[in-house]
Amino acid sequence: MRSYLSSKWYLDLPIQRKLLLWFAPLLLITITITGVYSYQVASNEIVSKMSVEQVSSARQAIDHLDYIAQDALDISDYLYLTPEIQVMLKSDSASGSYINNDSILMINRLMVTRPYFQFLTIYSPRFEPIQFNNKGLSSAIPFEEYREKFDYEGFLTRKKIDEWSIEVPNHSKSIFYGDTKNKLLLTKILKNDLTLKPEGVLILGIDEKDIRRSYSTPNDKTTIIVINSDGSILSDTNGFWIGKSIRELPYFNKPIDLPDLIDPTVEKSDWVFSHSQSSLTGWHVLVLQPRGDLLSQLNRIKWITALILCVTFLLSLIVSWSVATVITKPMKIILSSMKKFQKGDFSQQVGIQGKDEIGQLGTGYNIMVRRITQLIDDVYAFEIKQRQAELKVLQSQINPHFLYNTLNTIAWTAQKNGEHTVAEMIYSLSGIFQISLSQGREHIELKEEMKLAEHYLFLQKMRYREKLSYEMELHPDLATFKIPKLLIQPLIENAIVHGLEPLTDDIGFIQVTVVPCGDHPNMIQIEVTDNGVGIPESKLKEIQEQAFAELPHQTAQNESFALLNIMNRIRLFYGAEAVMDINSVENFGTRVRLLLPHSKR
After folding, report:
1. Which of 95, 112, 259, 359 could make an SS bond with 227 (beta carbons 3.0 to 4.6 A apart)?
2. How far, in whole angstroms, is CA 89 from its chain's centroid?
3. First to last CA, the chain
4. Which has the closest alpha carbon to 85: 114, 33, 127, 113?
5. Total Cβ atoms within 10 A of residue 49
6. β strands within 79-236, DSSP E
7. Do the Cβ atoms of 560 and 542 come closer than 8 Å?
8. Cβ-based neighbours of 68, under 8 Å, separated by 6 or more
9. DSSP state letter for 541
10. What is the pLDDT of residues 297-306, one digit of tens each?
11. Are strands 508-516 and 468-474 parallel, antiparallel or unpaired?
């Protein structure tokens, strides 16, 4: 019973008094233990703090190095995919291809805006070496010399398309003449984007001193070493170990060949170290500092500890009371706000500053209140949108169904009254609406698209009577090939409106054919030909220039607007492989041909 009463008495105490009850005795005990073991604790703290700083330094070094490496990889990928470079990689080696001035200016801009990139060189047997040098201090060796020294063919057979290495001046296998700087090299295989066959290499050079500046620290006692995955040293704070093997470093209790063995082999009694590896490049960063230099600072801590023992005992009661007040005051604010929130006041927010646990508690409480309020609003908004969506679904089901039934009823009535032509026209119009809507689908099969075009031509035939004739052909193997909806009908309409209507005496003729392309087995050919008035040569040239642009702009009017609109649609759906070919002879007719890749269904 007494145990229960004493426990209840303690539990009922305010937190402020509980803290005071425990804080003063524990503080006194802690001070005593600190005085006895101050030296050991201080030494551990210094080593621990330095370890944390080294971890941060290693991580920062990795981040800086990854930024430069990622930028180098991005530039190499960009140049690899540049159309001009790809054209040169596909060219005949005897043609003497050269990169154009626009591409030279583009690459120069890339290099100038990144001062840590010293040079860029591209080697290939298909063209003369391409060189860019930010500092203008050296020139690359000829391709034949590079092929002989650096096992060019062997490099092209590797599975990994890029490789990092270090080049030290005065080395027998140096890529550059007259350069005395250590250089970090990114060598990347360049492939033909169609055949994926290696056709050359791209070499991007970075001044090692720029790499060193990216991770250097003001503490001259700290040594940072960057090691490649093969054990070669790419950079270090003093520049002494560059180009050497990890086996030559004096920091290990036994020789090692690969940097993966760094952690268990560093001599921990002599060095405080941190080791980190980049997931991007595989580089290892080793940060070291002599342990003896760190522990020499502990002589001052002995006197500081003795002073703290005397002062802290006198201030312990005051501090304990103040700390308890600081801790419990914001908790009381949160507790008061929670009671109001429980009563339905969802506008509650507490103004607790700081990022400690209590500050995070206040921030989390504010976020919880806002999210609950937002959740209530979202539930109402969701219910409204759900009802709107259900209404739209019903409308989309009812409207086309009503339209088809109405047109078919009119057609049946006309046929019953002997108006067979009118009935056929209404059936064709109904077919156009049905295929055009096609239950919201964006792409339909070619047989449906040709059926829509046939309905349209039939209606135009009824309009122009003896002035219009047409012929349609669809290869059976292409009947199920899917294309963007309403691709052929606009071409026919364009031919009728702008090609056949201006005719005075001649009979207009339109031919629509959809067949495999003989010159390109993986392409299909859609061709619309008319014998109309044709397109003037100047206007035809303007339309062709816009159609062959990378992304045609729909600024033209009349017939060119429809053609460019179709060009835009097939480019968006099929990509750059899609082709529109427009040929016309004034007073003789026009032919529009679409070539679409057969593999993209």
Report:
1. 259
2. 26
3. 83
4. 127
5. 12
6. 117-124, 127-133, 139-140, 162-167, 176-177, 183-191, 198-207, 223-227, 233-236
7. yes
8. 116, 206, 210, 211, 214
9. H
10. 666 666 776 6
11. parallel
User: What are the phi and psi torsion angles at 4 (to 5°)?
Assistant: -65, -45
pLDDT of residue 511: 93
> Which segments within 228-324 are labelled E, that is strand?
233-236, 271-277, 284-290
Query: Tens digits of per-residue pLDDT, 14-53?
Result: 766 666 667 666 766 777 677 667 667 777 777 788 788 8
Distance in angstroms (rounded) separating the CA atoms of residues 362 and 299: 43
Query: Do 251 and 267 contact (CB within 8 A), yes or no?
Result: yes
If phi > 0 it is left, if psi is from -120 to 50 it is alpha, else beta; for residue 46 that is: alpha
pTM above 0.70, yes or no: no
Kind plus residue range of the DSSP H or E element containing 515: strand 508-516
* Cα–Cα distance measured from residue 101 to residue 195, given in angstroms and rounded to the nearest whole number: 27
Mean residue pLDDT across the chain: 78
Q: Which amino acid is at 197?
A: K
Amino acid identity, residue 291? Answer: R
What is the bridge-based pairing of β-strands 233-236 and 223-227?
antiparallel
Question: Mean pLDDT throughout 468-473?
Answer: 90
d(CA 436, CA 486) in angstroms, rounded, equals: 7
**Residues 466, 581, 558: CA angle, nearest 5 degrees:** 60
Examine the pLDDT at 388 and tell me if it is beyond 80: no
Over the Cα atoms of the chain, what is R_g? 40
Amino acid at site 554? Q
**368 Cβ partners below 8 Å, 6+ apart?**
none
Rounded CA-CA distance 577/157 in Å is 30
Please report, as a single letter, which amino acid is at residue 18: K
In angstroms, the CA 544 to CA 102 distance is: 24
Amino acid at position 340, single letter:
K
DSSP string covering 88-103: HHHS-GGG-B---HHH
Residue 591 host element (H or E): strand 589-597
